[in-house]
Amino acid sequence: MAATLQLTKTESKLFVRDPIALFFGLVFPAVLLFALGYLYPGFDEPSADLDGKRYIDVYAPIALVLGLATLGLVTMPPIFGAYRQFGILRRLRTTPVHPVRLLSAQLIVHVAVAVAAAALAIGVVVTAFDVPVPESPLWFLLSFLLAAASIFAIGLLVGARASTQVSGQAIGMAIYFPMLFFAGVWIPRSVMPDGLLAVSDLTPLGSAVQALEDSWFGATPSLLNLTVMLAYALVVGLVAVRGFRWE
Amino acid sequence: MPVIEVENLVKTYDGVNVVDGISFTVDEGEIFGIVGPNGAGKTTTVESVEGLRVPDGGSIRVLGLHPIEDRYEITERLGAQLQESRLQDRIKVSEALELYASFYRNPADWPQLIERLGLAGKADTRYSDLSGGQKQRLSVALALVGSPEVAVLDELTTGLDPAARRSTWETIEEIRAGGVTVVLVTHFMEEAERLCDRIMVVDGGRVVAIDTPAGLVDRIGSRQVLRFRPSVAIDDGLLTALPEVASVAHHGQQLEVAGTGNVVHAVTALLAQRRVIAEDLRIEQHTLEDAYLALTGSGSGFSTSGREDR
Q1: Contacts of residue B91 in chain A, CB cutoff 8 Å?
Q2: What predicted TM-score, i.e. pTM, was given to this entire model?
Q3: What are A206-234's pLDDT values in tens digits?
Q4: Which of A77, B30, B176, B261 is the least buried, fewest Cβ under 10 Å from its Cβ?
């Protein structure tokens, strides 16, 4: 436990020293929402396209999921790849501390940054654009937790197999961009055609956006969305742990 | 009592015995060198000792412990410096040591450790800003931060410039002086000759020889060659009359005297007695490198004077 704590402390420092990870992981969702809300005409006015909702209302959960995906799929896998490539996991194997502790430390750091990034983004839309504080807080919390678990499970799987920093980055990105599409970053789910929406529902990011949006505005997230996220978290997470390469 | 006992170690990859029945022991407080060509099985052997690889045959005991079954205890008492192992670019020297020190039950006093390794001024420096030599010394520091009884150092000085290599050698001698048994895998015969009490030569996964550096050199004979310009001409007969001298040859003004045993002393004594000064005197003896090349069959066996001797 002491070792995990010490590792988490060290890995947090290293994370903070990476300006790119810090920007995209921590502040980007908040900056994105702030910029869209101020610069995009009509972004904070009710829209007929969205059944009377405002674009900022719809994009707030999308930005949270974007933040999770950036941390889980872009930031984390290359770190694991690098730790394997550069023999950092191997070196750890020669000490009394199992390298799994280093990976736990990384997960802890990423989850902590993800929570901070979400809080920051929520703070911005609540104060600047009159978006309500999540109206079903427990459902919202559960949705966020499942979203994080399913996305980090995928990142962990990439990190479990990537033999180098660059391959971690490449595979992570190859998953990241299509996933963002299904999350509705370019076409919000409210305006997706039915076929596309059905596919989006089966992706962890699509389900995450919907569950967060529902609970944010007082509805109960659908069982489908919650189940999809839970399934990804468990199945992909298990495959990642089973298939983890230490060297 | 031996600190490391390896008996008939076998490790197979893809049906090939990379390590094919290696046996050796390392005694307490010695610096034990392992040399051999690339792919000879050196790293596989030490990584089996460290418990990083599971042998396919044979037995290993380190401090009386089994490297796999007593994994935890081994990691507490054996410090390993791995080949080609880096740290995170943004980690500072002091942070790395503080972190690794927290892993052990009896950590060394790391500020003192980096002082000894000449890294004290670099405590706040990030890993990526260290020179190659400093990175290697940090790697040694991390191998020692748990106060190990045995340190296994794999290709410690590969990629270092000569100055950094020499300062790393001093470090190793200090480690031993501190009571730590050292196993050193190296490519550099000069390094092995200078540091090791005993050297194991490995080739093709087998032990070719285990001996002291001098003992290994003796195995390929004690032929020595003196080259000099005599200040006054000297009769060849006087030289060949010496029992230690095997041959005399002239190359212009230069004389080349080859022999065995105490030939250097015999020739110089004769010259002194005849008041002949040996100008530009050079003495060539077998080095460990000659012995190594002869033992591993990877060279003529007499690199400095390019001649056979057996």
Answers
A1: 10, 14
A2: 0.82
A3: 999 999 999 999 999 999 999 999 999 99
A4: B261
Residue A90: which of B82, B99, B102 has the nearest Cβ? B82
Q: Output the six-digit token pair for B7.
A: 């008996």
Confidence grade of residue A99 (pLDDT, cut at 50, 70, 90): confident
Partner-chain contact B88 A88, CB within 8 Å: yes
CA dist A233 and B124 (Å) reads 40
CA distance B84 to A84: 12
Query: B26 - beta bridge partners?
Result: B4
Inter-chain CB proximity B75 and A17 less than 8 Å: no
Would you state the pLDDT for residue A19?
92
Distance, CA of B5 to CA of B277 (rounded, Å): 53
How many beta-carbon contacts under 8 Å exist across A and B? 61
ipTM over 0.90: no
Across chain A, mean pLDDT equals: 93
- By C-alpha distance, the chain B residue nearest A2 is B102
pLDDT tens, position by position, A17-52:
999 999 999 999 999 999 999 888 888 888 887 878
Contacts of B257 (CB under 8 A, 6+ apart): B225, B226, B227, B239, B245, B247, B248, B263, B267
Q: Is the pLDDT of residue B51 over 60?
A: yes
Q: Do B52 and A90 touch (CB under 8 A)?
A: yes
| Nearest-5° Cα angle at B187, B185 to B189 | 100
